[in-house]
Amino acid sequence: MEIWINPACSKCRSALSLLDAEGAGYTIRHYLEDPPSAEELAEMLRRLGLEPWDVARLGEPVAAELGIEAWPRDEAARGRWIEAMAAHPILIQRPIITADDGTAVVARSPEAVRSVLR
Fold first, then answer.
1. What gap in Å lies between CA 77 and CA 93, rounded to an integer?
2. Which residues contact 29 (CB under 8 A, 6 or more apart)?
3. What whole-number distance in Å separates Cα of residue 14 and Cα of residue 95?
4. Which residue in 1, 2, 14, 106 sits closest to 54, CA to CA?
5. Domain 2-115, CATH number (from 3.30.1330.30, 3.40.30.10, 3.40.50.150, 3.40.50.10070)
6. Cβ within 8 Å of residue 63, ≥6 positions away
7. Which of the four pLDDT bands, split at 50, 70 and 90, describes residue 100?
8. Could you say which DSSP state residue 91 is in?
9. Would you please indicate which residues are annotated as catalytic (active-site) residues?
10. What is the Cα Rg of the chain in Å?
11. For 54-85, what is each residue's pLDDT tens digit?
12. Whole-prediction pTM value?
């Protein structure tokens, strides 16, 4: 499994601690330093079963600069959201775990982290 993290994020550190406590094998991706491509984001969203606006961090300063909160949230605008997140990975909610079985989860709670361990 792979976990996308920002080391400065307390939720990310908590998720890593829980994975370690459970003895889970994982790879860390520092997604701010190694941003996902638009294609990787689209695949991650497919695995999550979510839309880009569902995992966007709208409180980030760059979100305000882009005016992203006012963007349409429909299929026609989906690509625009994904491209913005690829260009500005700080907009991506964290941590995200992609499991070996093809599932993925936004791992902001211990329950969400444990869901990929089952």
1. 19
2. 2, 3, 4, 5
3. 10
4. 106
5. 3.40.30.10
6. 56, 57, 69, 91
7. confident
8. G
9. 9
10. 14
11. 999 999 999 999 999 999 999 999 999 999 99
12. 0.91
